[in-house]
Write a structure and sequence with these properties.
Layout lengths: L1 H6 L17 H22 L1 H9 L21 H6 L13 E7 L7 E6 H17 L7 E4 L7 H13 L2 E3 L6 H10 L4 E4 L1 H13 L11 E5 L5 H11 L2 E8 L4 E6 L8 E2 L4 E6 L13 E7 L10 E7 L1 E2 L11 E2 L4 E2 L4 E3 L2 E3 L1 H9 L4 E12 L2 E10 L1 H5 L2 H19 L4 E5 L14 E3 L4
Helix pairs in contact: 2-3, 5-6, 7-8, 8-9, 10-12
The chain binds adenosine-5'-diphosphate and zinc ion.
């Protein structure tokens, strides 16, 4: 089944809008520099905060002569969006702004972003190129289960899919039984949602007798949260589809900043629209080529809200080796960590993705887990709850203990810390319709 679904994807031609994906590098760099100069000038002329920061450094847009000069410009951070809430970073008058979005804003006020008509076109195009990169085209039936509304996921994917000529089902997030019914009855061929929600669909489907493996669904466009390579394998094995990683963030445009091609070798950044840098989070200095650090992005074509050197807090590295697909766009390594998600336990930095890959190495563990941090007599304690197959629960007590020990050991070798592992029945941990919440930090309470 897996093979038939996959073979159908091969040898498709690309949509004409994807042409910039294949620009020779020198030509791409020329285009980037031209766009960069224009965008820096625009931000300087229309965004007070940026003008002031440039002035403080004694700089004007004329100081930007090469792409490398960008490293001299000031950074923009999430706090800047909050401090200027709601409209303080807009570079266009309201009469030119045709859409506003906002991100959840887990701490206090959300951040607001704006789009001119041209910005929406750019966004539609990068989303179209994203969907085309993983082999989708006219005739595909795309179930868009990203949330519609203020969140950028839903509408971003929607317009891209429509422009591609695919059939879009704007189902939005949630209502799992209806999602499954639609997937089956409408002959859905591709789905857009978070990887954790797709796992939930696989499980719920199996429970109600809808096995995704037997449906025409062949492609998943998964993003909005970190996930690991082991998670991808689980998803592909359990559903028979190909799972692709899409990356984006509200501040830069929404989904469609970077997307994997059929080679599944890490998302290609749409570099004609977004200029990437990798910096050392602590010093703010550029990292040497290929080294891991914080991704910094500059929007090259955004009118309503240009972002100059935006610090994403996402940790990755840039790969410039050619990709077999022929795209000249560089790739980012899968973003499995976000600086904000890191937790420190007994002085050790840990990312949920490390726990995830440690767990999924062990047979019997399901890709549903939660990390609970508490403090006992002044000491940090990490408990990892993980669902295991029902077969495991039917096993002897000894077998259960053996599995528990294996998982605990796997975590210990991965992060160098002891964790108490608690095995739980399948489908007992809370599921999310959007981004999964992996860590429950109860230490502050
Ligand atoms: P919020 O900041 O409220 O979560 P966004 O929806 O803008 O709102 O989320 C963007 C963030 O989601 C990114 O900065 C990144 O941390 C995460 N993200 C998005 N896509 C991916 C992906 N494919 N892999 C890992 N993380 C991702
Ligand atoms: Zn490629």
């Amino acid at each position: 089944m897996l093979m038939t679904k996959y073979d159908a994807r091969k040898n498709r031609s690309f949509h004409p809008v994807s042409a910039p994906d294949f620009l020779p590098r020198p030509q791409l760099r020329e285009l980037q520099l031209r766009r960069l100069k224009a965008i820096v000038q625009r931000a300087y002329d229309h965004v007070g905060l940026f003008h002031k920061r440039m002035a403080d450094l004694g700089m004007t847009p004329e100081d930007l002569r090469t792409l490398e000069d960008l490293a001299k410009l000031p950074f923009t951070q999430k706090a800047d969006l909050r401090d200027t809430y709601p409209f303080g970073l807009f570079a266009s008058p309201m009469k030119e702004i045709v859409r506003l979005h906002a991100s959840s804003g887990t701490t206090g006020k959300p951040i607001v972003v704006a789009y001119t008509r041209q910005d929406l076109e750019v966004w539609t195009n990068v989303m179209l190129r994203s969907l085309s990169a993983c082999g989708l085209h006219e005739g595909d039936i795309i179930q868009n289960a990203y949330g519609y509304g203020l969140f950028t996921g839903g509408l971003g994917a929607h317009y891209g899919a429509e422009a591609l000529g695919a059939t879009v089902i704007p189902i939005s997030g949630g209502n799992t039984q209806r999602q499954l019914m639609v997937m089956k009855d409408f002959g859905v061929t591709a789905i857009c949602c978070t990887p954790s929600y797709f796992l939930h669909l696989i499980d719920q489907g199996a429970e109600s007798g809808i096995h995704i493996k037997d449906l025409p669904l062949h492609t998943g466009v998964f993003g909005a949260e970190p996930w690991t390579e082991s998670m991808r394998r689980r998803i592909e094995e359990d559903s028979g589809i190909k799972a692709y990683d899409i990356y984006g963030l509200t501040e830069i445009i929404g989904p469609g900043v970077a997307m994997e091609c059929v080679c599944q070798a890490g998302p290609h950044i749409f570099e004609d629209c977004f200029y990437p840098e990798i910096i050392d989070s602590k010093t703010g200095k550029p990292c040497p080529d290929g080294e891991e650090g914080e991704l910094v992005l500059t929007t090259l074509c955004k009118q309503a809200m240009p972002m100059i050197r935006y610090r994403t807090r996402d940790i990755t590295s840039l790969a410039d080796e050619p990709c077999e697909c022929g795209r000249t766009l560089r790739r980012i390594k899968r973003i499995s960590r976000r600086a904000d998600d890191m937790f420190i336990i007994r002085g050790v930095n840990v990312f949920p993705s490390q726990i995830e890959s440690a767990l999924l190495k062990v047979e019997g563990a399901l890709p549903h887990y939660q990390i609970i941090l508490t403090r006992e007599r002044g000491l940090d304690v990490m408990e990892v709850q993980v669902e295991v197959t029902s077969a495991v629960f039917g096993d002897t007590v000894g077998a259960l203990e053996g599995l528990q020990e294996k998982l605990s050991k796997s975590i210990e070798t991965t992060v160098g810390l002891h964790a108490t592992v608690r095995l739980v029945q399948p489908r007992t941990l809370q599921r999310s319709e959007g981004k999964a919440k992996r860590v429950l930090d109860q230490r502050k309470m």
